[in-house]
Design a protein that fits this description.
Layout lengths: L1 H30 L20 H5 L7 H24 L6 E4 L7 E4 H13 L4 E10 L4 E9 L5 H19 L7 E7 L9
Parallel strand pairs: 4-5
Antiparallel strand pairs: 1-2, 3-4
Length: 195
């Protein structure tokens, strides 16, 4: 999904940039008095983008304002969707594993995340783990969220996570490095009753 979103993003940004470049170039050429072809929509510095007739042509039609509002609403929703998609970090779909033959093999990102989560949850003091791989498939990065048990030492849990679970994942995937951003949170526990 992350790869498809990147392709859609690049296509839409490219088309929007091309359209803005063409319109801007047409206005600039006409505004500076350059000779323009006869089919060009603007002819010179004194020409206006929209004449009075163009602006008032559809004003009395009943369908005009609902269509304008619907088109603008769709454009705003599309822009908001693209903006939110940019803010989200894309989850890595696959990791390029060095297979020794010079070409490499592809490993599903979710599979590596599952293995990392399983090994992290097996560490002493870790109640639950959530791993998300981001970055590029040749240089993945791990975002780790650990829920620690009340008695766990955060420093020891972090050390064991990096020297065991992350190191094993890095070595098994044939990666030179596997940077990890780790968020630690302690599990809440009820107060003990002393009698």
């Amino acid at each position: 999904m992350g790869g498809k979103l990147r392709v859609i993003n690049r296509v839409l940004v490219g088309l929007a940039g091309l359209a803005l470049f063409c319109v801007g170039g047409a206005v600039l050429a006409a505004g500076t008095g350059l000779s323009v072809p006869s089919w060009w929509p603007w002819y010179g510095p004194g020409d206006v983008l929209l004449s009075d007739a163009d602006r008032y042509r559809w004003r009395d039609e009943g369908w005009w304002w609902p269509v304008v509002i619907a088109v603008l609403a769709v454009l705003v929703l599309l822009a908001l969707w693209l903006f939110v998609a940019q803010l989200r970090r894309a989850r890595l779909a696959e990791v390029l594993v060095d297979s020794g033959d010079g070409e490499g093999a592809l490993l599903r990102g979710r599979a590596l995340e599952g293995v990392l989560e399983g090994e992290a949850e097996s560490l002493e003091g870790v109640s639950r783990a959530h791993i998300t791989l981001t970055g590029r498939r040749s240089t993945p990065q791990a975002r780790v969220a650990l829920l620690l048990e009340p008695h766990a030492s955060p420093a020891e849990s972090l050390t064991r996570l990096t020297t065991e679970a992350v190191a094993h994942a890095r070595d098994s995937a044939g990666l030179e490095v596997l940077p990890a951003e780790v968020h630690l949170r302690a599990a809440s526990h009820g107060a003990r009753r002393v009698t």
